[in-house]
Amino acid sequence: MNNLLNEILDHNVKFVENHEYEKYETTKFPNKRMVILTCMDTRLLELLPKALNLGNGDAKLIKDAGGLVSHPFGSVMRSILIAVYQLQAQEVLVIAHYDCGMSGLKAEPVIESMKERGITQETIETLTYSGIDIKQWLHGFDNVNESVEHSVDIIKNHPLMPKGVPVHGLVIDPKTGKLDLVVDGYQN
Fold it and tell me: Which pTM was predicted?
């Protein structure tokens, strides 16, 4: 039976045997000294780097749903801080996009989908009793520009972020790659 994992592994054997990796060799340090937080949207996989003139090795790239810093001490913020302190990133870019699935996302349909796939009401209630506001945790945002401003604000004002690191906020059009500036980190 041929499945996705087998397709990936079969391709990988040929990729390594043919030394195709050689054209991607670089170091762990970003050539352009930046870390980018963006959305996991499939339309940005190749479009975003091309729209920013980035090649392999140019930037640290962090992807999550909505390109959000949802918690000041979560894994996204930790990754940004590691990029700045250990991996020579000198600037931070938060790049969200128009037509994002997190825009206007409501928790209720996600919870219903979870239940349809076997997550019990009891599990959801246990999380609630444990202090997890699952509806808030699954809630998206209403305005992409405000979402970018909020993430930029969390990063820039984080108690562990060194002063003077520019934190920029942008929104990209997932069809054309056009960037709209929301926050100019050099001005703040």
Answer: 0.91
